[in-house]
Amino acid sequence: MQYGFVGLGVMGRHMAMNMLKAGLSVMVNDIDRKAADPHLARGATWAGSVAEMAAACDAVFTCLPNFAAIEAVAMEALSTAKPGFALFETSTNSTTLLHKLHAAYEAKGAMLLDAPISGGASGAESGRLAIWVGGDRAAFDRFKPALDAMGEHVTHVGASSAGLVTKIVHNASSQAMQAALAEVFTLGVKAGADPVSLWQAIRQGVIGRRRSFDGLSDEFLPGQYDPPVAHLRIVYKDTLVATELGRELGVPLRITNLAFADLQEAMARGWGERDSRSVMLLAQERAGVKIAEDRARIKAVLDADPPAPTDVRHGRA
Question: Domain 167-304: what homologous superfamily?
Fold first, then answer.
């Protein structure tokens, strides 16, 4: 199997190197010829152009800095691609551009798969990336040894764009949670708490003791909010206390107040005796979707990748 890798920057250079360390045959290309020197020393071959690489390879991986580069490289690769050729685009792409490229590849009997990555430069160097792949399942299976060389958690998420959507949700969640944490920790420090002591203590709360997204398995994914584990009215009261303290101390709590507005709406609907997470139904209503998944599917995910042992609802400590 002959692989290619285009884009030997902060992430790509490590990813390509890990393919070589795994014993795979790899051609490399980058706008900076010197960036490939460590790879050539390790046994890679240089491709003078993307077209040359695609003509010689079964699959090519790209890690590129912007939409223009992604489109240019993908279309150049397609110009010489054989039927069955696969291009794995690992950057955070545009869904519009992705669908355009996917259609172009499909028309020529080739495959473009979105395979965005998570883990940063350290994860790329250690080979511990998460890689979320959308697109042809047979191509995913065929070229999975290369994905496994680069990532610790490699998942086929679904059809074209599913991998990219996963990355978008992950990154947006990260920024939203980061903003919320910065906001409420600032409130705590303004109210007199020692920052390190506050951090140390809050890590032992129910949220601190579980993995970030595991809470979605309880009520949100199965769509079951009755009977309650924690009443909405209690969470409403607690959040009211937080927003009042913010006003008292002059600390803007923009995100917390947005969350409180949803709690107010849920209370106005008479949901006070429902589970506190019933407020999450409002987001689904606004988007016109309904989430209610089979608990057996959810359990299978948790069985394969268990929650943190400290998780008070699912932990096995």
Answer: N-(1-d-carboxylethyl)-l-norvaline Dehydrogenase; domain 2 (1.10.1040.10)
Tell me, yes or no, if 167 is annotated catalytic.
yes
- Of 223, 255, 261, residue with least CA distance to 240: 261
pTM (global) more than 0.85: yes
CATH code of domain 2-158:
3.40.50.720
Single out the residue of 51, 10, 9, 3 nearest to residue 28, CA to CA: 3
The pLDDT tens digits of the residues spanning 296-310 come to 999 999 999 999 999
Q: Among 144, 167, 237, 290, which one carries the catalytic annotation?
A: 167
- Strands of 125-169 (E only): list them: 129-134, 151-158
In this structure, what DSSP letter does residue 3 have?
E
Could you give the CA distance from residue 121 to residue 63 in angstroms, rounded to a whole number?
12
Spell out the domain ranges in the chain.
Answer: 2-158, 167-304
Spatial distance between the Cα atoms of 111 and 88, rounded to a whole number of angstroms: 9
Q: Are 215 and 209 in contact (CB under 8 A)?
A: no
